[in-house]
């Protein structure tokens, strides 16, 4: 009996000594905002090509707040956010690493017949003063407004930078999308729809990304952008996390960010 117990203990010891600690932790998930999701998934794909030994996942959006909560509680190791951390969140010991600036785009269903607006016209649309695209020289089609919740990072940037948005009251006829992907889907599927969210080149496929005051989101004169950042809890940085962070700040990742219409940040 003693020899059997000893053999079992020895087997368990050997198992734990040879088990990869990272696999015991489960996959490395980068959770949080939907802003820049496709771009970050592309960065993730490039990273996995270089490090196939690391099980990386870039799951759908749970919002910046969701990512902060998951990392703060220790549920996940890495998060992604599209807004600066609040003082109360910094007190959790979170480390904030910006990797890209992403322009805040205004986009419509192609049925509108519109490819450019002035910032004044944009305010009139979202406040409900303009209700038909024909008033702007577009199709005789009702304007379908898609907005985001008040805490959304893109909305906060638009309020702070887009002329007329700071004090604008949204039309009560607007629909609130809870995620970036929902806003994009609404604009793709609903005739007459207009929405906003982080810019990426895939938006140009099937949507009209509007020039505002003569500037496309990728132009230097375009006023609005959000900063996409990675977050982790101080003292938790392991080899897998460091490897992904290093790649996200590398020249390869910078090329991917630029290809998606973003502006790389960092080294």
From TrEMBL:
Q: Where are the transmembrane segments?
A: none
Record's signal peptide:
1-19
Alphabetical UniProt keywords:
Signal
Q: Where is the PBP domain?
A: 23-250
Q: Write down the species.
A: Roseibium aggregatum
Q: Which gene encodes it?
A: pstS1
Q: Name one Pfam family in it.
A: PBP_like_2
> What is the protein's name according to its record?
Phosphate-binding protein PstS 1
